[in-house]
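Protocol step 4 of 6: structure prediction from sequence.
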Amino acid sequence: MFNLPQALKRLVIGRAMRSEELGETLLPKRLALPVFASDPLSSVAYATGEILLVLTVGGTAFLYLTPWIAAGVVALMAVVVMSYRQVVHAYPSGGGSYEVVSKNLGANSGLVVAASLLVDYVMTVAVSVASGVDNIISAFSGLADHRVALALAFVVLLAAMNLRGVRESGKAFAAPTYLFIGGILLMVVTGLVRVVFGDNPQAPTAALGIDPEGGKDPLQGLGLLLLGLRAFASGCTALTGVEAISNGVPAFRTPKAKNAATTMAVMGVTAVVMFVGVTVLALTSHVHYVEDACQLVGITGDCHGHTQQTVIAQLASTFLGGDNGVLFYFIQAVTALVLILAANTAFNGFPLLASILAEHRHLPRQMHTRGDRLAFSNGIIALAVVAGGLLWFYRADVTSLIHLYILGVFTSFTLSQIGMVRHWNRTLATEGDPAVRGAAQRSRIINGLGAVTTALVLVIVLITKFTQGAWLAVVAAVLLWLMMRGIRRHYDAVAAELAVADDEEAPRPRQVHAVVLVSTLHRPTLRALGYARAFRPDTLEAVTVAVENDATDELKAQWDAHGIRVPLRVLDSPFREITKPVVAHVRELTAARPGDAVAVIVPEYVVGRWWEHLLHNQSALWLKSRLLFTPGVVVVSVPWQLTSAGRADRPARRAPGAVRRGEPARGR
């Protein structure tokens, strides 16, 4: 029988994969780079713009700070990349910052990192998609009114691609990522060559002046320092996603740690080269980029309706032949595409981290379940829903979303580097081999430098962005931390309650009393009675509820006519209820016979069509839900397959919609 929902699912996701095919989804380095590093690589498209947005608050007077801020971002990138290469080698099982901090600083600190990263992954999707849509609108301004719809559509597309599996998403995303790298490097090299040989074209906005925000006077002293720190904090968006490779080591082909470390180094060098190149071109061509278009002096028409081109769009227009050339549209296309696909870093990191947390009983166990394509489907869907909600609420506005960004990632950076310092201290305390000790000492210096640097940046980010919206990210992380602790306490309490003592024997009731629920005398009722007799209870009775007197009298007459040797008890129901009389009767039985068991046997229809579920078994479903809360009661369903369920007893080759147990998220 044709199943339309399953057919659509197969079309979108692909065929279901067997558990033993998990090895086929592992990634070579050329695919791992676009899968795990598309976020930090794509941040080149907006990191320079974020620095300029802050500095132009006071007009053009403070753009001279841009090279120094960019240099600070590059130095920080180098430190963080070197630090996380140590993490990859020391903890190749893929826990990343969460595992490092949990093992070295304790479970609560590990949950702080986990909560921060989960929030940051959500923000990565929202910011990347919104920024990608901005670049599309820079090329096609007529789409500005459809910003939110475009953003949500891209989130759905990304989720569908990732539900197909990590390897397939890597294949789909590899070409756009490499085209983006090639396009940006082409633009940078072309621009630098033109500048070196004396041809220094100016950006479309170079001739426009900038009004200081609110007519502010030039800043001095502390105000200038805070402006520079705020611009630096915004530029640090270039570092988001750097840790994703350390979280995703299990997805690499062997040797996993070596391949992951190599990929991280390539990612760091490539991101730095592109970021420096874009920043240099933006300064030499005098790009003016502001938060509010009405700050620009000299634009024609209504400033409120003016759509600014992004920094990348202005550079492409300036150095690659104008905003109507083929290369301009190529740069805009690959930039928009890679920014949207940059969210793929989060679509890989979030489900994997959520799976590890679920394995440790900090999140619902369903997060540890692999789907049809051996991806952590529940985590992918959860991320898409939350990120889509943020895009809808903030109208896919990058400026509004960016303030909630990067706080979480620097929290994890700082704590993980502190944890790595403690890891190397423990290694040095027990290791006697001089070569190993030398390597550990070098690694400790690198991670110590990373801890100090990222801690300073965390303080800067917290101070400069807290009142602009970062407090929401802090609140979200705190609530998530509390929720994960509560889930762990619940699972621990359940485990303790269900634990078997060393001398404990299987509990056995003194007697079993069977109650068969009857509404009508038909074949399902006879099967339920036959099943009840088969396990030979100590007492057996049939129970019906007298909702309508005529129907009850007819049932009693049929009962006697068929000579059924099971007593039929009729429960009175003056208010025509079914559930309450049955539950009250069963509770009377359990109260009168402590230590005995009461088996309530419910005949049920098995149907094959979705709409038939609405027509049958509703009373039985409600009854069972109430009886399950009654101590000493066992509820037994006796199925009767209707004709429409004729295929139900045929074993399927695969059960695409079945509940699955997840494979270990790490090499355990």
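Step 5 (inspection) to follow. The first strand starts at residue 209 and ends at 210.
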